[in-house]
Amino acid sequence: MSKFLITSALPYVNGVKHLGNLAGSLLPADIHARFRRQTGHEVLFLCGTDEHGTPVELAAHAAGVPVADYCARQHTVQADIYRRFGLSFDHFSRTSGEANRQLTQDIFRCLDAAGFIAERTILQAYSPTDRRFLPDRYVVGTCPHCGHPSARGDQCESCTALLDPEELRSPCSAISGATDVEFRATRHLFLKLSAFDGRLRDWLATRRGWPTLVRSIALKWLDEGLRDRCITRDLEWGVPVPKAGFEDKVFYVWFDAPIGYIAAAIEWSKAASGRDWRDWWQSGEDVTYVQFLAKDNVPFHALSFPATLLGSRLPFKLVDTIKGFNWLTFEGGKFSTSASHGIFTDTALALLPADTWRWWLAANAPESADTDFTLARFVDGVNKDLADIFGNLVNRCLAFAVARFEGIVPGAGQLGPLERQVASALDAHLARLRRHHESLALRKAAEEVRAIWRLANAYLTEAAPWSAIKDDPARAATIVNTGINLVRISALAAWPFIPSSAEKVLCSLGETTDSVPWPQGALSAIPAGRRIAVPPLLFPKIAVADLIAAQPI
Predict the structure, then answer these.
(1) Cα angle at 15 between 10 and 17, to 5 degrees?
(2) Rounded to the nearest 5 degrees, what angle is found at the Cα of 8, between the Cα atoms of 431 and 84?
(3) Least confident range of 8-12, 136-140, 239-243, 248-252
(4) What is the pTM of this model?
(5) What are the DSSP calls for 287-324, one per residue?
(6) Are 526 and 510 contacting, i.e. CB atoms less than 8 angstroms apart?
(7) Residue 508 clears pLDDT 60, i.e. is over it
C-alpha cells in the first residue's frame, strides 16, 4: 500500500487553542490519518507548536518568564490537550527545536546561493509608545482593498489580500493601540517570490482534486501578482539569520514554521531505530502528502512554502493535496483567542468527553462555508446522533443479547431476505463512506457513518428479536447475531471520528483495538460462542443549561 504523509497546521504556542483551531485543521487531519491506517496504508502524521514571533515574546513578558521557558510550558499544555482529544500524531514537534533551526538555515543558504534572496532597505513600522519595531501582524488598520477596518499588516482576513503595513490606512499598534506609528528605514532580506510565478502556475496545474476554496485562493494570489516577501524580522526570539550583516535579525515565523514539518520528521526519525525521514520527504511517487489547514493559511502553504522548497533545489516532497476549511464561528461571532471569546479546548474537555466534540465538529465541518457553533445546535446534534442513534443501537442490541442469551453470541441460522437486504445496503454505505474519506469530504463521511447507524437500528426495529424469541428462538438468535455484527461494523465505521467510544464498544464485543480494521461489511465476523458485555452508557443526554451551569461560557 502507498504511504500517506499528513500534516496539520501548526497551532501557535501562545495559549490554549479554541474549538475553531481544532475544527479547521487538527481534527480533520487526525480523522484522515486514522482512516488511512484503517485501510492498511503506512501513515506519518506530523504536527507541532509554532513557537516564534512577537506574540510569544509578549506573552512570556506578561507571564514574567524567559521566552524559552514559556514555550516549553505551553507546548506541554497543548500536547496534553491534543492527547486527550485523541489526536494520533506520530510526532508532535516544536519549531524552536534544533532540527528546525538547522534546516531553516540550510534552506536559506541554498536559496541565497541560487539567487532567490535579495537585500533591501525598507520602511518598517515603529511604535514610540511601545518602543519597538512592530511585526506586520501587529500593525492594524483599514484594508486599502476592501475597507475592512481591522486588517493586519501582513494580510487582510476579510479579503485575504497580502499587505505591507505601510499600505494600511490609519495604522495603529495592536499591542497598545497607539496611533503614533511611524515608519523607519531598516535593512532586511526578501524571498524573490515573484520569480516563481510561472513555476507555481505550472505546478498548481498538476495538482488534482484540490477543493475549490483552496485553488481559488491560490489562483487569486497569482492573478493579483506575486510580490517578493520579507523573511526577516527585528526580534530576539527566532531562528537566527546566518548571513553577515544580519546577525541581529531572525527569520519571519512564516518562513521557518512550514519547514518545521520536515524538521518534525527528522526528529521522529532520530527517536527510534529503523526510521528514515527521507523515505517520506525525499522519496518517489509512493508517498502522498496531504495538508489540512484553515483558509487564511492557504497562501503560505500553496505558494510561499512550495516556492521555498523549489528555490532551494533540495529534493523535498511538495504537497499533493491541501484541504482547506472555512471558519467555525461562535454564537454568530468569531472565535477569538485574544478576546477569550468561544469555547477553548481545555474547557471543552472539562465539560464533556472528547468524542462528543469530535463528532459534532466533524459532522458540521466548515467545508463549503463558515459554520456557526451554538450551544443549542451542539446539544441537539450530540443528543440525536450519539445518544439516540449510536448509543441506543449499542445498548438495545447488546443488553438484549446479555439478558436473553447470557452474554454469549448465539449462532446464526439461515439468513433471510431482510438480512440479505441489509447486507447489500451496508456494502453500498461502506463504499460511499470510503469514497468520501478518500476525497476528504468530512461532512459527507460523517453522514454516511450516521446512515450506517440508522440502518442497523432500523434492522433491529423491523426484525424485533424481543418478539421473535417468544415463538421462534432460532430466528431470534439469527437476528441477535446479525445485530451484534452490525454493532461491530457501526463502531469500526465510527472509529476515525469517535475513537474512544468506538474502542469501548469493540472491547465489549471481545475485539482487539491494537489495530482497528476497515469494516468489510461481513455480518459474520464475530463468531458464535464468544462472550460479550454491555459497555457503560456511552453518551448520556446533555442539556444546554447543564453545560452553562458546569462552566459558564
Answers:
(1) 60
(2) 85
(3) 136-140
(4) 0.93
(5) EEEEEEEEGGGHHIIIIIHHHHHHHHT--PPPPSEEEE
(6) yes
(7) yes
